[in-house]
Amino acid sequence: MAGLVGAGRSEVMESLFGMERFDSGEVLIDGAPVTIDSPSVAIEKGMALLTEDRKKSGLFLVLSVLENMSIVKMPEYIGKSGFVQHVKMAEDCMEQIRRLNIKTPTMDQIINNLSGGNQQKVLIARWLLAQPKILILDEPTRGIDVGAKAEIYHLISELANRGVAVIMVSSELPEILGMSDRVMVMHEGRITGILEKTKPTRKPFCRWHPIEAQRMSNMKLTAAPASEGSSFFANLRHKMPKDTGIFVVMLVIALTFEIAGWYVRDQSFLLNTNRLVLIVLQVAIIGIIAVGVTQVIITTGIDLSSGSVIALAAVVAASLAQTSDSLSPMFPALVNLPAVIPICAGIGVGLLCGLTNGFLVTRTGIPPFIATLGMMVSARGLAQYYTQGNPISFLSDSFTAIGQGAMPVIIFFVIAAVFHIALKHTRYGKYVYAIGGNMTSAKVSGINVNNIW
């Protein structure tokens, strides 16, 4: 597909892949008409799309090479237990790394640290894992070096010889002439001509420039020697976890308070039993809330309503946990209930508010800030109206026990462990991180960003 920038080539490719709606025409695969209204359907039909801008709509720059490469095929890596089969996933990705000669220290390397050519090859490997019948390449060699271009040309020729239908969009005339069996020219959104080759060939572009290709293959780049100090700190930075800076800041704050405690009161600030118990209990309660909010933050969202929703859920649960000793119970006929009933009622209120937030954001297009701000005000007003401004007292011992002693800490650790496993070892977690990394790339990869369960 040839034409000037703005001719509508990319829009046609996106329409074929279900990212855009077309006004007229039909799509035929193996001679049969098909309806493709989303990238996920296109992938099911055996199509793949390498987008023009790899950073805007292709890569998840904050994720690893392994995560970028396996995201399209993720449903096939889910075992019967519902967990990701990491070994099989790693084996398949390593095979593609060797096949495409992707230069990366490990599969866990953050893809943003790779060169442009290797990033492009990771994207190609992502689609090769899906074994497409139709491969759409939109400017596949833009922004990469000559050596990587030659490798991609060879790969395209290999795929075409294996029977894969390759549709390539390019702005480079030598590339079009060298790689195409048929050239379709577009201008201002219309096809203005179709050129057939008299002698079809799939020889790569490097055949037209053998001297340049040989020169590039033998070229060795020599970097200026770095100073010993800078090399030491650079190696140390790469070996340390990416979140080390946060822990260093927290350690500095803790040491500051510890020094202040000895200086002001001549005693330890942190190594105090009563204070440690109080800190742990307070952190546990906040931690339970933080686990839920983390799911929103990972997807680059925001939730202003969490505090008000918790208050509403708490008063609803407490109103169903009153005993017969209460002088004015909210529901006289519903006293002395088992603790499980008010607990489930509180969870139900939180779930209903969360689903409402999700519906407003994903189905109506309301920005998360506005949607959750409205929920915050609504939940606060509902809590006030529900209690009429009166305190709820005389709660059952079995209900209040969940907030006493070590129980909040236990609940926090259980919830944190469950969500850690979900984020690390399930499709839900992989998709959450993908959406947070790049929502457009997630859509192109076939992820339903409005419903990731």
Annotate the secondary structure layout.
Layout: H1 9-16, E1 27-29, E2 32-34, H2 39-44, E3 47-50, H3 54-57, H4 65-70, H5 86-100, H6 116-129, E4 134-138, H7 146-161, E5 165-169, H8 173-179, E6 182-187, E7 190-196, H9 210-218, H10 228-239, H11 244-265, H12 273-298, H13 306-319, H14 340-362, H15 368-387, H16 397-400, H17 407-425, H18 427-437, H19 439-444
Parallel strand pairs: 3-4, 4-5
Antiparallel strand pairs: 1-2, 6-7
Helix pairs in contact: 5-6, 12-17, 13-14, 13-15, 14-15, 17-18
Short description:
This protein is mainly alpha-helical. It has helices at residues 9-16, 39-44, 54-57, 65-70, 86-100, 116-129, 146-161, 173-179, 210-218, 228-239, 244-265, 273-298, 306-319, 340-362, 368-387, 397-400, 407-425, 427-437, 439-444; strands spanning 27-29, 32-34, 47-50, 134-138, 165-169, 182-187, 190-196.
Plain-language structure description:
- The chain has a 3-stranded parallel β-sheet, with helices on both faces. Strands 1-2 form a two-stranded antiparallel sheet. A two-stranded antiparallel ribbon has the order 6-7.
- Helix 12 (273-298) packs parallel to helix 17 (407-425), helix 13 (306-319) runs parallel beside helix 15 and helix 14 (340-362) packs antiparallel against helix 15.
- The chain has 3 domains: 9-217, P-loop containing nucleotide triphosphate hydrolases (Rossmann fold), CATH 3.40.50; 240-271; 273-444, no CATH class.
- The protein has helices at 9-16, 39-44, 54-57, 65-70, 86-100, 116-129, 146-161, 173-179, 210-218, 228-239, 244-265, 273-298, 306-319, 340-362, 368-387, 397-400, 407-425, 427-437, 439-444, and strands spanning 27-29, 32-34, 47-50, 134-138, 165-169, 182-187, 190-196.
- With 453 residues, the protein is mostly helical.
- The protein contains 19 helices and 7 strands.
- The longest helix has 26 residues, at 273-298.
- It is a multi-pass membrane protein.
- It holds the Pfam family ABC_tran.
- The chain crosses the membrane at residues 245-264, 276-297, 333-354, 366-386, 406-423.
